[in-house]
Amino acid sequence: EVQLVESGGGLVQSGGSLRLACAASGFTDDNYAIGWFRQAPGKEREGVSCMSSWDNSTSYADFVKGRFTISSDNAKNMVYLQMNSLTPEDTAVYFCNRARGPYNYWGQGTQVTVSS
User: Fold this and answer.
1) Which residues, other chains included, contact 69 with Cβ-Cβ below 8 Å and sequence gap of 6+?
2) Range list of β-strands (E), 3-116
3) Cα separations (Å) of 115 from 7, 45, 109?
4) Paired sense of beta strands 10-13 and 110-115, if any
5) Nearest to 112 by CA among 67, 72, 56, 76
6) How far apart are CA 7 and CA 114, in angstroms?
7) Digitized pLDDT (tens) for each residue of the chain, 116 residues in all
8) Is residue 61 within 8 Å of 77, Cβ to Cβ?
């Protein structure tokens, strides 16, 4: 069974930092994209950052550039999102996503709340 499990969310003050982690298990494919999305209350889910497994290239949404960093530990099947300089606008449920062709997998999400 394939599974993505996020962790690391929580409550943090504005200007603080959090590190999210996504543990992937059960996958046997290569050449996939893995990344983070978020969904705030009343808003659509939006892409935050992603990286490709074949060349480790990364991309970021404009609203997190310079503040968030995506990284991976392939030996542990882990992907991380280091989030710095958080603002209340970053409050959302953060989801890990892994995609390859038509196959798209999601974790259950982890809540990030940034207080002002």
Assistant:
1) 81, 82, 84
2) 3-7, 10-13, 18-25, 33-39, 46-52, 58-60, 68-73, 78-83, 92-100, 103-106, 110-115
3) 19, 21, 19
4) parallel
5) 67
6) 16
7) 899 999 999 999 999 999 999 999 999 888 899 999 999 999 999 999 999 998 989 999 999 999 999 999 988 899 999 999 999 999 999 999 999 888 899 999 999 999 99
8) no
